Amino acid sequence: xxxxxxxxxxxxxxxxxxxxxxxxxxxxxxxxxxxxxxxxxxxxxxxxxxxxxxxxxxxxxxxxxxxxxxxxxxxxxxxxxxxxxxxxxxxxxxxxxxxxxxxxxxxxxxxxxxxxxxxxxxxxxxxxxxxxxxxxxxxxxxxxxxxxxxxxxxxxxxxxxxxxxxxxxxxxxxxxxxxxxxxxxxxxxxxxxxxxxxxxxxxxxxxxxxxxxxxxxxxxxxxxxxxxxxxxxxxxxxxxxxxxxxxxxxxxxxxxxxxxxxxxxxxxxxxxxxxxxxxxxxxxxxxxxxxxxxxxxxxxxxxxxxxxxxxxxxxxxxxxxxxxxxxxxxxxxxxxxxxxxxxxxxxxxxxxxxxxxxxxxxxxxxxxxxxxxxxxxxxxxxxxxxxxxxxxxxxxxxxxxxxxxxxxxxxxxxxxxxxxxx
Length: 422
Description:
By secondary structure, the protein is α+β, with helices and mostly antiparallel strands. 50% of the residues lie in helices and 11% in strands. The chain has helices spanning 41-44, 47-61, 93-102, 109-127, 162-176, 188-191, 198-214, 224-233, 248-257, 269-283, 292-299, 301-316, 319-330, 341-363, 371-374, 378-399, 417-421; strands at 3-5, 9-15, 22-28, 33-39, 71-77, 80-86, 90-92, 149-152, 157-159. A six-stranded antiparallel β-sheet has the order 1-2-3-4-6-5. A hairpin with a 4-residue loop joins strand 3 and strand 4. The chain starts with a strand and ends with a helix.
């Protein structure tokens, strides 16, 4: 059963995850879908932790950068603390990398540079953020990684969980007494327990760049100690060893930002973004390279349709179908991505058939937000219309007392064309 928090957000569905915070699909009192992060009472009642969460959340509310998921509101309600953010319609960069690898889709060099430069620019804005009085309100992302970056279906990127990540890691590390959270994208100084700064995020972006360029994991190890030891001690392999298309000047940039000592890296994320764009301009647009938007369509055509279903339900105020679509997006096992041009063509034909069926439904007095269509079961919708047609034809036949069957209604002729051809 849903409940309302902060007087205007209805919690609809608890989302999966192993963080100490709870994440919810929710909607505002105006019907817009949002994501709510709930800090449970066990943490919210501890003043030092609550101060951390509230401080970072308030800074994020003031940020307002298009490359950072918007933080809309944060406050205490009852026994818990809540942070309300926009619901980014897209996939994590981690999922993009996983599907690209699984189906042998290497991200081309220019697209990889564009991805990391967009993230770097967004992070720099967060690092140098100031309030209206000019006081520094910068936020360093404490748990940056490809799982904290969303890629939308129009090819833009958004950093998520910025107000929560640093506070969350501090709370978990303090409560558990050991380094908590994901480790394979930490900087060496974070592994040593030092406070991260902008150069720490530069290092993490370097790891993400290396993995985009190579299609390999840089610090993927089974044991936490082995991961941190590799981050602190092992020199990274030049990415060109795994991808012969990488020129020496891109190799040099990738290795520089992965330097173990912070003072030897680029000074901030803006410098890194500018360096990436300079490299991209030297490479030029690759005619064989997939643009990010096209790559998303290719890899996630199945999920893109479900996101559209959620958006239609959101606009029509259909809570039931919002929840159903969200369950498909956040709980269902991923469907195999198209692996050939033939598969993509077949997907396009299915999309065209779906649109054709929707128009037919409308002509028969139904709405595409009906249960039949919102569940993605176009076949069921067609079967429904066929049964309606059969019933109408039988009734007309009975009324005519054995005379030849009348023509089907014009709006249903598109379903009888095959029979007419026979």
